[in-house]
Amino acid sequence: MSVTISIKHALKKYGENVIIPDLNLDIKEGEFFTLLGPSGCGKTTLLRMIAGFNSIEGGDFYFSDRRINDLDPAKRNIGMVFQNYAIFPHMTVRKNVEFGLKNKKLPKAEIASKTDEFMKLMQIDQYADRLPERLSGGQQQRVALARALCIQPDVLLFDEPLSNLDAKLRVEMRTVIKNIQHSVNITTVYVTHDQEEAMAVSDRIAVMKDGVIQHVGTPKNIYQRPANLFVSTFIGRSNVMNAKLVVEGGRTYLLTQKGHRAEIQNVMDQYRQNQDVIMSVRPEEFLLTQDATVDGIDGVVDDCVFLGLNTHYFVHLDSGEEVEIIQESSIDSIIRPGTHIKLQLNTEKVNVFTADGSANILTGVCNDCAAS
């Protein structure tokens, strides 16, 4: 049976050092929810509080209507998959997978049946009699996942499960994990610092910094309308540029450092006033042209990198700012270093923040967005 997870005013500290000051979060039943952030932001600490491995200095944690603050970890009915797999090296694959079932003292026939079921589900049944030392990293992680799933937990917890795998295997295993989670529909909390991994597997993501949740939403929403500058620069690539917001005749404009003006129509009413702002422009959101007659931001190509489908251009602007631009590769030619170019802003996609970066001033920001 899957559960909801509700966290109210969570506090975690070590001595006088506060790791999580006051955190509130609701995770839906059957949801694949990811805690994402840089090292030291508190995401693993929060996961271990959910699991019962860390003490809780304040607040309340619930699995559905059941308060779990003082519940022994063994009684929380969780499955956990660790970064280092944590499978027993002296046990075969079968014995590793059936370990949790034996602890539940289930009948032998049921243990054998469930073990077979989840080894097949994870495509490791052909390795049933092998020791872990004879398995690849990906196969060992499949064993760990099968062991966590076969006890039919209410909650499945992942702590950086793919960080020890090579790049190709990480992509393969994140697909496996996502597909399995959707098929078994267990409420899942996944911790990672890899934003691409989080985007690939999650129904919703909470971006954390210094123990504080900065933005909760779907991958699409967080990428397209990040709540603040930190989220914008942490999720994907982003070019950060200083600008001014100018209101004239009831219309609102972005004014770059060298005076290029672009009208922007989706500024929230409370921010429609003259002020310094910070623009965040994804590399693919610039419109690039070599036409000198176009009204745009002047720049010079410093370098270009051809990557098949796309070409990445590294450009310095007249303002002295440096930006990265991604354009679909042309069949005819690539713009060479030293070429003077013009850039225009796609104002429907650009993000604009207050001068301190604390808030996105555009419409469409949705904190605590639900997955569609």
From TrEMBL:
Name of the featured protein: ABC transporter ATP-binding protein
For this UniProt record, give its keywords in alphabetical order, as a comma-separated list.
ATP-binding, Nucleotide-binding, Transport
The protein's GO terms of the molecular function aspect are: ABC-type transporter activity; ATP binding; ATP hydrolysis activity
User: GO cellular component annotations, sorted alphabetically?
Assistant: ATP-binding cassette (ABC) transporter complex, substrate-binding subunit-containing
Highest taxon listed in the record's lineage: Bacteria
Pfam families, per the entry: ABC_tran (PF00005), TOBE_2 (PF08402)
Q: Which PROSITE patterns match?
A: ABC_TRANSPORTER_1, ABC_TRANSPORTER_2
* InterPro entries per the UniProt record, alphabetical: AAA+_ATPase, ABC_transporter-like_ATP-bd, ABC_transporter-like_CS, ABC_transpr_MalK/UgpC-like, Mo/tungstate-bd_C_term_dom, NA-bd_OB-fold, P-loop_NTPase, Transp-assoc_OB_typ2
Which residue ranges does the record assign to the ABC transporter domain? 5-235
**Native species of this protein?**
Flintibacter hominis
Q: Quick check: keyword ATP-binding in the entry? A: yes
